[in-house]
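Readers outside the structure-tokenisation community will struggle with the description of the input data as it stands. Showing the layout once, in full, would remove most of the difficulty. For illustration, here is how one protein appears when written out as sequence plus structure tokens:
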Amino acid sequence: MKKRILTTCIAILTVFVAVFVLAACSSAANYEIKESSLKDGGKSAAELVKEICEQHPERTMGTGEDYEFLQYISGEMASYGYPAAQFDTEGGEGEDGGGQGTAELSIFAASSATVIVQDFKFKNYYTNSSENGYNLVYRIPAATESDREVLLLASYDNCAGLEVSSTDLTGGQTTVGVVGGQGAYSNATGVAALLRLAYELAGEKLPYNLTIAFVDCAENAWDGANELIGSLEIDKKNFICLNFNKLGMGDHTYIYSDENAQAYNDYFYAVAGKTDGGKVFKDIPLNKQIAEVRFVDAQKTEYSHFAMYGDNLMFNIHGLAVASFVSFNWESFENPFYTEVAGFENILGSSADTYDNLIERLGGEGKGEEVLAERLDAVVLCAAAAVSEENADTLFGAVAASDPAASGNYADASGTWSLIVKIVIIVALVAAAVWLTVKFRSALAKKQTEKLDKLRNEAANGGPAPKAEDIFSMGGDDFKESDNDKRDGGNNGSGDGSGDIFEGF
């Protein structure tokens, strides 16, 4: 009887595990990915992170430092062979700041590549004023005419120069201070990864139109990304964005696309499996941590999680395909909303977001730098392989097989997974109850065995022999049935209470 119960429980659990595995496993194995490798030369992404933090620790929107940092990015891109942007020597402040708006500033004759400094107005929620934001956008046409579009994106602004207030709840005193820090994790790492990826793609004859954009105001409401989307002519069926956001320091690196399953997300994980082999990238958990918070009014769901917390949210809102490379620890529940590195306090948006702290969390000097390089190189290699000429048809085939326009039906997606999780929990509780029952019955049987042994010993020492009806009444109905079978089959029907009747206890 016990074996039947246990077998049934194992079968039920196996079915549910199989369902989860099938749900979690993508069709990644169906994608044929051609291998790739990083080019020699140039600054590594890890070296660029250190350089950005040391030379431009403050890249805060609305301060003019964001505009100045774009000149650093332009210089790096020009060294790779991309066109050089022109900048207003006034520093980008005031009504006339931001270069020449959306006008074409420079043409790279060899490839007809163009670059613009896109300026726009945004409402700064920290200062409650209207200010200028700046995007730096490169456009590289396809080698042959194509309607396919790839956008590579990273936000570059940080919180370092923001003035924020904090209140002492015990004393009721409010203080105002500058955040500080260097924005190493957010988002020098993403900018560095994108710069190195631009180096990898420089001079390549790509079968699609490529846009590389460094956008402002991610620390506000992702205004730069939203402005960029509004300026692009996009065929949703032939468009994909790769977003690089908060990389390197988190315990694991994920590729997040949407709450609803998308084939192109499977494609990127297939590439990651080919290029990384599971060392850096990790699958997104099915039971996502969620917070009941809405980041922007346009968001179509009442909940959020950390992987949504980036410029990629704007693409989800507009129903556009986006794959966001992001690192943190999705499995940890140390923090109610998210955990960056298990066992450490989060540093995002604080004065602790520095290069030195980033390296310390990765193992300290030497080791930390090695780990950072490995993780960022894995991201760059995965992205470079994913958008390479050799894999472009596979990439856009995956985009065509997806439905990013369904992005935003997050409540339904959340409800489905919640139901599955609840079912699994119920099955686990039932299995636990059955297991406890079996254990209880085993303990009861042991106790009955001890009592029967006592009766036999008493009978052997001249006491009254135990009656059969007393013996079979001890174990309940199941005991009667199973052991009557044993008595009849193993005792030749003698019914004297000896032999096989005591087996199995």
